């Protein structure tokens, strides 16, 4: 098989449902945090920081949810998807 | 510099959500793929164990009654125990599948501790409501890790186990120090916080 065909096959390759599910977990969590921030903006003290203490500025629940999604999406999901696709490619 | 209790609940909620996300991913891809990278196999059991360790300072610094101290202490112990059991199984130091019973045991002990140490009724304040809700969620949710001992490959059981952590995280995020729940706040609970 020529390298051109290999690259074309790679280009048209579609992710499996399982890979898409794993890749969606992080963004879905981030989206939940953003939605929460819109629904309860008063829980984001960064929007009105004057007179707030350390903890009120450091720990803001909607941002923590977004952070959890970011950590998962950047540090965990890529490796899982890579290993999953590697396993699915095996004959 | 000590944070109010609600901040501690929100930090633990973040840990629970992370554990839930890892378990969900593991349920989706299966153990073989999940454990292909060794660090990933240790990830959620380590998180559970670490949260158990961090529960000790919570017990020390947020003790406003003996029953609170006992509850926080029991959570610290069972979280460390269940995390350590999972770590031992992943590492291969423990072989019997019955070590997985540590997790439903932790759920049951934690749930009982929530229910026993909450002395007020459901609608006394939001914290009381959440204590009852989290307690019963843990006790009912213990069915998932219990079933996982006997049906470890069931995707429904594994997803249920993972979602239990996510739901518990959401409940902890809802916690506020002295706040109403569905419009109810007992005058005995004190002045509502912001």
Describe this structure in words.
The complex is a heterodimer of chains A (91) and B (194). Chain A is built from 4 helices and no strands. The radius of gyration of chain A is 20 Å and the shape is elongated. Chain B is built from 9 helices and no strands. The model of chain B has no long low-confidence stretch (mean pLDDT 91). Chain B starts with a helix and ends in a 21-residue tail after the last helix. Chain B has one domain. Chains A and B meet through helix 2 and helix 4 of A and helix 1 and helix 2 of B.
Distance between the termini of chain A: 17 Å
Report the principal-axis shape of chain A.
elongated
Total DSSP helices of chain A = 4
Unreliable stretches of chain B: none
Query: CA-to-CA gap between the ends of chain B?
Result: 19 Å
- Please give the radius of gyration of chain A in angstroms: 20 Å
User: How would you state the average pLDDT of chain A, rounded?
Assistant: 86
Number of strands of chain A: 0
Structural class of chain A: mainly alpha
Q: What's the quaternary structure here? A: heterodimer
Largest sheet of chain B: none
Count of distinct structural domains of chain B? 1
Order of helices and strands of chain A: HHHH
Described by the principal axes of the CA atoms, the overall outline of chain B is: elongated
% residues in beta strands of chain B: under 5%
Largest interface: A-B, 24 and 24 residues
Biggest beta-sheet profile of chain A: none
Short structural summary:
The complex is a heterodimer of chains A (91) and B (194). Chain A is mainly α.
Which features would summarize this protein structure in a list?
heterodimer; A: 91 residues; mainly alpha; 4 helices; B: 194 residues; 9 helices; 71% helix
């Amino acid at each position: 098989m020529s390298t051109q065909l290999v690259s074309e096959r790679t280009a048209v390759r579609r992710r499996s449902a399982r890979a898409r599910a794993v890749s969606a977990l992080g963004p879905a969590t981030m989206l939940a945090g953003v939605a929460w921030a819109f629904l309860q903006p008063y829980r984001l003290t960064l929007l009105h920081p004057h007179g707030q203490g350390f903890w009120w500025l450091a720990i803001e629940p909607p941002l923590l949810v977004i952070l959890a999604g970011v950590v998962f999406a950047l540090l965990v999901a890529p490796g899982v998807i890579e290993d999953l696709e590697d396993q699915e490619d095996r004959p | 510099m000590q944070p109010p209790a609600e901040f501690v609940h929100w930090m633990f909620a973040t840990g629970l959500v992370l554990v839930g996300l890892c378990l969900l991913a593991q349920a989706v891809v299966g153990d073989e793929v999940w454990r292909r990278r060794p660090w990933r196999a240790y990830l959620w059991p380590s998180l559970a164990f670490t949260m158990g360790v961090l529960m000790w300072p919570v017990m020390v610094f947020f003790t406003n009654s003996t029953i609170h101290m006992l509850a926080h202490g029991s959570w610290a112990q069972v979280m460390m125990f269940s995390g350590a059991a999972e770590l031992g199984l992943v590492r291969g130091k423990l072989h019997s599948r019955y070590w997985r019973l540590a997790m439903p045991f932790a759920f049951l002990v934690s749930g009982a501790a929530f229910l026993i140490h909450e002395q007020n009724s459901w609608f006394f304040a939001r914290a009381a409501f959440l204590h009852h809700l989290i307690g019963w969620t843990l006790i009912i949710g213990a069915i998932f890790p219990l079933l996982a001992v006997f049906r470890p490959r069931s995707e429904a059981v594994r997803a249920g186990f993972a979602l239990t952590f996510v739901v518990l995280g959401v409940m902890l995020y809802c916690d506020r120090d002295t706040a109403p729940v569905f419009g109810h706040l007992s005058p005995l609970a004190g002045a509502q916080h912001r």
